[in-house]
């Protein structure tokens, strides 16, 4: 049997939490989940990214192994990350390993023997691996010996086509239940929309599993959605003033754009790399490793990057293009601030984003009509979030079925946007589109309609005689950006649609009638004003940080900052020696607490969150020495 850093032979979950992981309290529903699974119950765990899902299966794995049940099999979609996950467990003193296609036959055989000797607590494997005859044989042998303790299916939404990372290999995981009905199973995911959840339960045959649904709130993340004016410049200013020297992810839609933005950031002296599916697998792996291992790296990526990235100190996630839906947005932004320290989710979006996303759905040749309808509904919900004036968090959580109060930590709470009564402007625009359509028998695009409204006699306007219409020049009082705002919000509110199959022309939708008749009023976000307020807020905030520190370091005093610097340098060396990311040795939050409290004894050090028994024994003396260096 393995020798865990635990004092009792029958440890409780709380013993394991403290002694192995160095934490004093369970978070949210962790304790209830752990207890249920330790008892052999099946569980479906829905918890936001960063909520602490890993401990929900790692602690039962340890407790059940100590009680003689054998190994826990963790099914995880990303081979690339298994190495680091196993590394983190090993650092904490937990016997763990992974089986994947990078291993030689001999290595796999050695592991299999270890398993049959009951020497491992956790085994990670990819879903395609689980279905190989060899693996099934191994599982059967373990089961026969009573050494198959638990199956934990991570990122379980991958089983559903309604989720955003569908993986066909996940479908066959239902076999686990059929073959080993008495082995407890748990499925974990951060994707919680109703459709995906139902589908997941059916596909994995988890109808009888107990469901644990956490609050999806991530209070340390500040949500900001701003109007796109000059995305590149906006991003640069955001990174320079808010996140100097900090790690972050920038999402863009196309590979070309990813390359451009990464280059732009580098030219501005920011450590940045590009990541997309067009790069070869080896280069992608290298870049991902650097992102995980080096401090303060910005990854500019398409959504190909990120699933399972469990780097805890990502300080911001920026979207330069709008995602497809709220699930995607929430999953992506959730990669910020897993360590619980302040982090930013920042997005710029504009009319073109709305048009592009609609077009991608409308023109998809593979999707069925049913699928398209679902996707349109999901996009609409995201647009409503972006255009909305109420608390972003209230809207986001509301989408996942959770009620909440205004948060005080999003742009709309911090700088309530002014609204203006756009009923008149909306009527003008809708009636202009209507008249043009009537007069010419065909529809026109946004640029042409705005020219008519603003009374610009362009060649095209004159050619079609649209300068003779009663609506010509009736909107000269508003500037083009304001009309753009009106247009975007009319599209977001489903009063207008952009027809991608007919040269992006504008078409009225049935709900437009109410506005035209004056029965419905339209209140819109005052974009220009809020942008200005945004600048003021950001300006004053960055002024506080005179020495251009990142948002987390900004609150430490000089002595603590110095200690933190030394501790980070020490950690980088250790991480390099062990070939592991720095956060696997100690989290930023742990180093930060050490730097702040400057403990002088091992006893004092052991009280710091994240300092487990094994780590204290391995690194405690060194940490005290590094910490004290400056004061001698
Ligand atoms: P998820 O998989 O749900 O995204 P993780 O399991 O990676 O989240 O946990 C997020 C972070 O929170 C990790 O750094 C983890 O060590 C930390 N964490 C989890 N549970 C606790 C706890 N009870 N106390 C303190 N930190 C915790
Ligand atoms: Zn808010």
Describe the protein in words.
With 632 residues, this protein is of the alpha/beta class. It folds into 4 domains: 13-213, Rossmann fold (3-Layer(aba) Sandwich); 221-416, P-loop containing nucleotide triphosphate hydrolases (Rossmann fold); 420-525, Arc Repressor Mutant, subunit A (Orthogonal Bundle), CATH 1.10.10.10; 555-628, DNA polymerase, domain 1 (Orthogonal Bundle). The chain contains 28 helices and 17 strands. The chain has a 7-stranded parallel sheet with strand order 3-4-2-5-6-1-7, with helices on both faces. Helix 14 (351-362) packs antiparallel against helix 15, helix 18 packs across helix 19 (446-453) and helix 24 packs across helix 26. The longest helix is centred in the C-terminal third of the chain and has 21 residues, at 558-578. The radius of gyration is 27 Å and the shape is globular. Residues 529-548 have low confidence and may be disordered. The protein binds adenosine-5'-diphosphate (ADP) and zinc ion. Residues 23, 25-27, 30, 47, 49-55, 310, 312, 338-339, 587, 609 line the site of adenosine-5'-diphosphate.
């Amino acid at each position: 049997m393995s020798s865990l850093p635990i004092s009792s032979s029958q440890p409780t979950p709380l013993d394991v939490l403290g002694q192995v992981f160095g934490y004093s309290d369970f978070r949210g529903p962790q304790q209830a989940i752990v207890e249920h699974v330790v008892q052999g119950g099946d569980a479906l765990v829905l918890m936001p990214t960063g909520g602490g899902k890993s401990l929900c299966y790692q602690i039962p794995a340890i407790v059940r192994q100590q009680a003689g049940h054998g190994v826990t099999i963790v099914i995880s979609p990303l081979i690339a990350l298994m190495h680091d996950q196993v590394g983190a467990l090993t650092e904490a003193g937990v016997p763990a390993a992974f089986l994947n296609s990078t291993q030689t036959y001999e290595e796999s055989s050695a592991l299999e023997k270890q398993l049959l000797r009951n020497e491992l607590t956790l085994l990670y494997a990819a879903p395609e691996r689980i279905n190989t005859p060899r693996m099934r044989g191994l599982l059967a042998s373990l089961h026969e010996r009573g050494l198959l303790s638990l199956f934990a299916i991570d990122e379980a939404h991958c089983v559903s086509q309604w989720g955003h990372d569908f993986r066909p290999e996940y479908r066959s995981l239902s076999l686990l239940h059929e073959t080993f009905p008495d082995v407890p199973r748990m499925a974990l995911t951060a994707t919680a929309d109703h459709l995906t959840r139902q589908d997941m339960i059916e596909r994995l045959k988890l109808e009888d599993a107990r469901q644990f649904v956490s609050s999806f709130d991530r209070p340390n993340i500040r949500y900001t959605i701003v109007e796109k004016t000059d995305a590149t410049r906006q991003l640069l200013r955001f990174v320079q003033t808010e996140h100097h020297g900090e790690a972050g992810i920038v999402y863009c839609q196309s590979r070309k754009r990813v390359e451009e933005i990464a280059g732009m950031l580098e030219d501005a002296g920011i450590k940045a790399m590009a990541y997309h599916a067009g790069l070869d697998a080896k280069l992608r792996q290298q870049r991902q490793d650097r992102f995980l291992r080096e401090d303060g790296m910005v990854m500019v990526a398409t959504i190909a990057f990120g699933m399972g990235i469990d780097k805890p100190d990502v300080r911001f996630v920026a979207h330069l293009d709008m995602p497809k839906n709220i699930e995607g947005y929430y999953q992506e932004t959730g990669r910020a601030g897993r360590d619980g320290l302040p982090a930013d989710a920042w997005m710029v979006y504009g009319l073109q984003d709305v048009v592009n996303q609609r077009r991608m759905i409308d023109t998809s040749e593979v999707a069925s009509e049913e699928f398209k309808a679902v996707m349109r509904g999901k996009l609409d919900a995201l647009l409503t979030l972006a255009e909305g004036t109420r608390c972003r968090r209230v809207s986001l959580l509301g989408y996942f079925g959770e009620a909440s109060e205004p948060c005080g930590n999003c742009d709309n709470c911090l700088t309530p946007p002014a609204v203006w009564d756009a009923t008149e402007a909306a009527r003008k625009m809708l009636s202009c589109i209507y008249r043009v359509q009537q007069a010419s028998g065909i529809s026109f695009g946004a640029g042409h309609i705005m020219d008519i409204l603003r009374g610009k006699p362009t060649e095209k306007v004159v050619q079609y005689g649209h300068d003779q219409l009663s609506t010509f020049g009736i909107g000269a009082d508003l500037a083009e950006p304001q009309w753009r705002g009106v247009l975007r919000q009319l599209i977001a509110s489903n009063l207008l649609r952009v027809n991608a199959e007919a040269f992006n022309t504008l078409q009225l939708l049935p709900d437009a009638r109410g506005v035209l008749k004056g029965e419905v009023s339209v209140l819109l976000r005052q974009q220009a004003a809020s942008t200005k307020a945004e600048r003021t807020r950001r300006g004053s905030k960055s002024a506080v940080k005179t020495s251009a520190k990142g948002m987390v370091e900004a609150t430490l005093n000089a002595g603590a900052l110095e200690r933190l610097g030394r501790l980070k340098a020490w950690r980088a060396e250790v991480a390099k020696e062990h070939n592991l990311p720095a956060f696997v040795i100690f989290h930023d939050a742990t180093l930060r607490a050490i730097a702040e409290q400057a403990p002088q004894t091992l006893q004092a050090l052991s009280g710091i969150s994240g300092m487990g028994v094994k780590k204290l024994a391995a690194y405690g003396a060194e940490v005290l020495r590094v910490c004290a260096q400056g004061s001698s």
